[in-house]
Amino acid sequence: MSTASKVTLAVSCLFAVGSFVGINYLQKAEQAAIRQGPIKDAARIAQKEKTRKQILNEQEQKMQLELKEKFEKLQPLKEEIITGVDKN
C-alpha cells in the first residue's frame, strides 16, 4: 500500500469517527434541550399565574379599602379601647 493511500485511509477513518462523535454529541445536546422545554413552560405558566394572582389581589385590596372608607363614613371608628369596665 502506498503512503498516499494510507494517509487517505487514515483521514477517512478520522473523519468517520469525528462525524460519529459529533453527531452523538449534537443529539445528546438536543435531547437535553427538549427535556428542558416542559420545565421552562411550567415556569413561564407559573409566572403568568403569579401575575394574575397579583392582579386579583390588588383588585381585592382596592375593593376592601373602598369598603373600609365607606363603612368609616357610616360609622366612624374611635381610637379608644373598650374593656367592659365602667369609668364612673
From TrEMBL:
GO terms for cellular component: mitochondrion. It comes from the Eukaryota. It holds the Pfam family PET117. Transmembrane segments: none annotated. Signal peptide: none annotated. Residues 46-73 form a coiled coil. InterPro entries: Pet117. It is found in: Mitochondrion. GO terms for biological process: mitochondrial respiratory chain complex IV assembly. Keywords: Coiled coil, Mitochondrion, Transit peptide. The keyword Transit peptide applies. Belongs to the PET117 family. PANTHER family: PROTEIN PET117 HOMOLOG, MITOCHONDRIAL. This is Protein Pet117p, mitochondrial.
